[in-house]
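<instruction>
Derive structure tokens from the sequence
<data>
Labelled lines for chain and fold:
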Amino acid sequence: MCTVVIHVPEGAGQPVRLLAVRDEERDRPWRGLGPWWPERGGILGVRDDRAGGAWLAVDPAAGRLAVLLNREDLSGRSDDEVVSRGSISLDAVGAGIPDRPRTRGFNLVEVDADGAHLVEWDGLQARRTRIPPGIHMVAHHAVDDPATARIARWLEAFRAAGLGPGEDWWMPWLDVVARATSDPSASVLRRDEHDGHVLESLLLCAATVGPEGVDVRQATPVSPGRWDDGIVAGLRRGIPSASARREARADGPTADREAAAQ
């Protein structure tokens, strides 16, 4: 459930690039990237309206981004003993997450201008490790873990594709995403039945995080879990850059809401 492809540069001063795919139930209400938590002081995110949390969160002023992926929980805790994972990415770009979260297991990709880390929480033990330079994939196991079929099948293809020039740096990766749909068992865009629920890829986000700030673009497939060329157009339209959002906040909450709607 959910996939992240990430490029961590070799040298300092270069941005981290990330492509994240959100898998969720089609009918579960959600909102695209926006300032949905006014109490959190300018943090933006992709909001899950049922639980009120975020799948992906960004603090443009601090230059931080976090994206959440589900992971098997090994704790044996009952539902009454856990809380929603929805606050994890919001906390990660804010004050930080606790050492022992009261949530089910998760993987959390944290990115800032200095690089990227993966937090792995299985309900028993948390581990935070730096993601090394290069192109990597994260799903519901460790970084680059071939136990995930799409990682075993497509990691080397993402590495061979590399990054494109300019603002369309994500185009070679999208070519791999499109090719991957030929094999539903290992596709990056997915339609899976899991624990009685059908989970589909509903959203793609492409992000650049570096010394110059954060830029996040989002696109929704016409049909969840299926490739279409409108994904490319959606990412090219993008959303206002982090610098534009800082200017918008200077004009007040109304301007910020208008920026999120673009």
In short: DSSP finds six helices and 13 strands in the chain. Residues 149-161 form the longest helix (13 residues).
